[in-house]
Amino acid sequence: MIGVASSASWLLFERNDLVNTLMLFVLGSSLCAFYLSRRATVVAALASIAAFDFLFVPPTFSFEVNDSRYLLTFGSLLIVSLVIANLAALLREQVRIARQREGHTRSLFELSRAFADTHDLDEILGALSARAGLELGCPTRIVRTHNIAPGPSHLPISGAEGHYADQFLIRAGGRSIASLEVGPGPELRRIGADDRLLLESLASLAGVAVERSLLAQAAETERRRAEMQEVRNTLLSSISHDLRTPLTVILGSATSLLEAGGTIAADTERQLLEGIAGEAERMSGILCNILDMTWLESGAIELNKTWNDLEELFNAARTSLAIPLRLREVSVDVATGMPLLECDGAMISQVIGNLLGNALEHTPEGTPLAVQLGVSGEHAFFRVRDFGPGLPPGKEEEVFQKFYQAHPEAHRSGMGLGLSICKTILNLHGGEIHARNHQPAGAEFWFSLPLSPHQPSVEAS
To answer: Which domain does 323 fall in, by range?
Structure first.
């Protein structure tokens, strides 16, 4: 740079005076101050003074100075170069700090975004280790330390073979749950104050994420405990309510038969026995629903899928309800060419039976039922419509919740588990179930099951 200034000054010397020539050297020194270190700037300033003195200050081509005023000029040039060098160095340092803080802020933001996507403790700690290693270019690892004594967040420790290591504690819930250990990089450079501040911030952010994760797990555990307690209370209340009536009828009828001692009329005896059988069947149905729901929610169920005809499954369910259906007019509409379904036939037959039984229970005796079986797109569907009071408006989907009863004031038997069992079974099959009201009266329930793309071939006998 000083050589360029000297060459330009020499070429333009005949057209410029010494002041303008000096400005070229000041410009060269200033440019050096902006792009080089303080030491290089001092060297450039001294070189400028020497070149200016040797080439342009009389006597030329000599370092002698006849006029002492040039000494002031030389000093001014040196001072200006040093001032500019200091200002430029401060500016570069501010830019470096700003860029570093921007990088730290970006790292904290990206890490917090990664923490927001997970509540798993190991994933949080793994994300912290990966981010720290990426920022510093150093090997990192996470050590679970549940019982570290309280102390500063940064603990320097010595490593193998004279190498160093740094440890940053991760605190959550008032205790240290892990530590981030950082080893030396490829060049074995020590971690600076800025890097240490970044790692402490990352560890602190991880601690907040871990504490949030622990609180979320505790809240979820408490929610499940409260939900289980509510289900238990509801179950006990429902059992005590729904079993009391049939037990009372059975006990009363059996007591009457015992007290009669064979003197009771045959018709009366038959009515009492039918009452005992009917109430025992009611109790059996309630207990079977409880066992079915427990079995389905256990998660240990395995579907026994085979090829089934939906119409045959409906006929099997209809046969099991032959006695309560004998006083009902049931219209059945089956689409032609119904494909076979790959499903657990016993479970789907139970779903159909529960829907038919639900329609029988919530409609007056003698009202008709309408059943439809068909195909819509890639799904087969079963639909049953009744002509009873219908469902409460806005509650069409709530009827599939456990223990929900659309008309609890009617004091009908049942615990509100039948439709919940249907929904659980259909979810296992990848199907859906819905309900809606019909005008002018009645409700409609339907479910759909996906069709298999490969239908079994039927060989002619």
So the answer is: 306-450
* Residues 345, 348, 354, 360, CA torsion sign: negative
Same domain assignment for residues 278 and 354: no
What is the radius of gyration, based on Cα positions, of the chain? Answer: 44
Q: What is the pLDDT of residue 235?
A: 56
Distance of alpha carbon 323 from alpha carbon 90, whole angstroms: 96
The per-residue pLDDT for range 67-85, each reduced to its tens digit, is 777 777 778 877 877 787 7
How far is residue 437's CA from residue 387's CA, in Å, rounded to a whole number?
Answer: 10
Q: With contact defined as beta carbons under 8 Å apart, do 169 and 128 qualify?
A: no
109 located within any domain:
no
330 and 445 belong to one structural domain: yes
Mean of the pLDDT values across residues 292-320?
Answer: 80
State whether 330 and 277 are in the same domain.
no
Q: Is 133 exposed, middle or buried (0-12, 13-18, 19+ CB in 10 A)?
A: middle
Q: How far apart are CA 458 and CA 461, in angstroms?
A: 9
Residues in the chain: 461
In whole angstroms, give the CA distance from residue 62 to residue 67: 13
Of 320, 348, 368, 336, the residue nearest 448 (C-alpha):
348
- Side-chain-side CA neighbours of 335 within 13 Å: the count stands at 14
Residue type (1 letter), 106: R
Burial (0-12, 13-18, 19+ Cβ within 10 Å), 364: exposed
Token digits of residue 270:
């038959």
388 shares its domain with 426: yes
Is the confidence at residue 163, as pLDDT, over 60?
no
Number of domains present in the structure of the chain: 3
Q: Collapsing DSSP states into helix, strand and coil, what is residue 166?
A: strand
245 lies in the same domain as 325: no
Q: Average pLDDT, whole number, for the chain? A: 77
User: Does residue 84 fall inside a structural domain?
Assistant: yes
14-43 burial code (b ≥16 CB/10 A, e <16): eebeeeebbebbbebbbbbbeebeeeebbe
Do residue 233 and residue 344 come from a single domain? Answer: no
Rounded alpha-carbon distances, angstroms, from residue 420 to 85, 308, 388, 403: 80, 23, 21, 8
Q: Is residue 170 within 8 Å of residue 213, measured between CB atoms?
A: no
Q: Say if residue 313 is in the same domain as residue 279.
A: no
